[in-house]
Amino acid sequence: MTFVARDTLGRPLRDLRISVTDRCNFRCTYCMPKEVFGRDFHFVPAAELLTFEEIERLAGIFSRLGVEKIRLTGGEPLLRRDIEKLVAMLARLPGIRDLTLTTNGALLARKAAALAAAGLRRISVSLDSLDDTVFRAMNDVDFPVDRVLEGIAAAQRAGLSPLKVNVVVKRGVNEHTLVDMARYFQHTGCILRFIEYMDVGTTNGWRLDEVVPADEIVARINERLPLEALEPNYRGEVARRYRYRDGSGEIGVIASVTQPFCGDCTRARLSSDGRLYTCLFAATGYDVRALLRGGQTDADIGAALQRVWSRRADRYSEIRSEQTGRLPKVEMSRIGG
Length: 337
Prior knowledge:
single chain, alpha/beta, TIM Barrel, 12-stranded mixed sheet, globular
C-alpha cells in the first residue's frame, strides 16, 4: 500500500535519484576538478557501496512512500559493473513508472542496447559543447566529443527516448557554443536542457559572475532559432520548456540560481554508500545503509525514511546568499545532479 510522504512545506516525495558510484572517468571542472579528485583521492570502498539487492530493497520501500520515478546517477553510473542487472531489478518494481539514467556518454555506445533490453526507459547524456576543444577542456581528461555523439546515436537506435542532452553553461567557457548545440540537435528528437552553473559542493570554485542566466540562454537561441514557451509536463518539473516555432524540436532551461524552484521540489537523493540527502545542497545525509545492514524490517526502514522526509524544510536555492554559500555541502559526485 502506498503512503505519500510529505515534508514541512507539503511537498510530496515523488522522485528518487540513486548514485551507484562516486567514481567518474571525467574530471569536469565544475564537478570533480582534478586538483581535488586526483590520484590520491579516497573514493568509497567497494564494501561500503550499496549492493544491487540493497538498492532494489530500498527502491521498493521508497515506492511505497510515493516515489514513482527513479534516476540512476553517479559519479558515472556506467562505471558500476553489471549496471544493466540493477536496471532489470528496478524495472520490475511495482509503482515505478519512470526509470532513467544520467551518463557522461563515454561508455554509452557499448552499453545502450543492454540497458534498453534490461528495461531502462529513458536516458540523459551530459554534453557541454560540440566544440571538441571546448569539450575536452571541460571534461579535463581530453575525451573527444565524437565518442559521446556515438553513444547518443546508439541510445537512440536502442529506443531510449526521448533522449535528453544536458549542457552546463559557464560564463567565458562554453556560452558561445550554445546556438551550435541547438542547431545540431534541433531535428533529432533529442531534448536539450541548458543548466545554470550551480554552487554544488565546495570544490568547484563557483562564482556568481560565471553563471549565464537562463533568460540570456533563451534569448541567445531565440535570436537565431525562434522559440515559444511550453507548459510544464507535470508539477515540479525543473526545466522551463520551449519549442522551436517551426515545430522542429524542444529545449529547456534549468535555472536553479536565478529562478529557484524549491517550492515544487519532490526529489530525494541516495548516495552510493547509502546516505539519504533531501537537497542537492545538503551538508549531511541520513545513514540508511546502517538500517539495511542492522536487521531492520522494511516497515522499520519505511517509517524512518518517512520521518526524515516529514522534517524536510530545504529550500537552499530560494535563500541562497553569501552566508549560505559558505556552508559545507555534499559534492555532486556523491549524489548525482
